[in-house]
């Protein structure tokens, strides 16, 4: 299981909720904030395709290809995923066009999970983002297995969102078969 | 009227649709691809607030404050706005906290329009993005006045989306009172 | 092409918009208001299945099976389809369970269109209904080909919604190949 | 607190989930299946307004006006609320026009909760319905306080949806201040 964090702050609310979800599990974690991933250059229609950008994107994709289950973790910024996470997702267009890797086939076989934490009524206002993630994974013919929406307005506040924490625990026990 | 373009390519499909919409009108245009706007650093919870980033963001906000009507133009990337546009929107958190400008009050009084062009059934799969924009402008108590979704799969293809082009013309005539 | 009207009033706004869409075309029309279609009794889990209700539902289904293209026309009531239309759709559960007709296979092959007219910002507030119709037709593996949302607040007002009327004309010309 | 059930079956899944949510609380319960509530006749534009239908609708509205908190409970039928529930909601148009009761003002002051149980991935496919309910209560200027989506495919199955049951318990303890 691979966990990809799109948050800016170390140990922020979305990260804490995700950590609770994968407690005592063996996972690989990638923190996008520690990496350089450039915004996509739209070269979909260029004859020669996308130019190699020489950043950390390619390494993350290599790891992505090794996992069957992927958790995408992001704070809710303006009712969407973080720019960091979006930059990463946008670059998937590059991997789709790149003939060397079986990106589409690999993504198709994965199970995706989404964790979102926001401060302004996220259980209602993050629903368009959940739908967006659904469209994203369905593009590959994959399934958005599940999602957790948490509410938090200040650092650490997520621990008081009993509903989100419980949901994380339930998923955790299911994954660990306990 | 201010038009803010979030596309990467010069004269791309979303840009062409927006140009059709503002034909023969006096507007100010800002192309985010010509500017440097860094992703937000989440310093909402830092005591001293957001640090000045020294990039082009502040200039765009100054222009934004001068207009009552704003058109946000973006290609549909992975069923969301472009990273460029998202980076710009994310930085609004910085202006909200900045006591020197009346950002919230100014945004509250504006009318917002959205133009989105995508290739994979955007009239259905861009709906979550429209809802996201709605949440964004409603945060300020403003109204998403209208939106146009266009469909295009290759450069210039938008001109064949008669529905979107007509809708652009109708709005254009309404704005020009003709 | 089969057009099913879920409105209450004769020649109401949604009906007028749909008529504009099928102008000079050969279609079959069904007005649910002229028929008796009872709400579903939830007997999905009853051993003997659904009881025959003796109402007009079965006749409509017979007609439905004869067409490859179906337009569902409904006013927007409380941001959803009319109760009449919903009662009709709900009864599809009965046809699904009924082994005598190949309901699911027939529906899978159809192209569906939706026409919705409402008074309170329907281009934004009818989007959940469009998404619901999408889920409905995707249940059968079919496709929501297109939809038109019209805005009207009083009888006949739809004729002034230039955008919706144009969209209807564009579809009409496409269907008639002119 | 008033609980309005829109399900057909006695003790069905949505009912069981709602009962869990209001356990050991003093509430008033209304089962729409025991009442006669006709579909609305669209007489919004008739001079004399809506005719009195002589059914049970008016009694339910009287009870509705007595409560500050209302839970709307419905099975998910074709990704929407049940026809019974929709018929009831549609009739609100009648109360809005009726000058004798302060329907709008009363609704404006209420807190609304929604409980939905469905069988086909409801945590994703019931989201448009949640958005519809949001539009409905926001029409009155009221707030959709919270919602619970449960998953169940056969009678009693909801008890195994640990996530929904936990969420119900959390709300229950919050309401009971324990």
TrEMBL record, chains A, B, C, D:
InterPro entries documented for this protein: Flavoprotein-like_sf (IPR029039), FMN_Rdtase-like_dom (IPR005025), ISF_SsuE-like (IPR051796)
Domain NADPH-dependent FMN reductase-like: 2-120
Name of the protein this chain belongs to: Multimeric flavodoxin WrbA
Record keywords, A-Z: Flavoprotein, FMN
Superkingdom: Bacteria
Gene3D superfamilies documented for this protein: 3.40.50.360
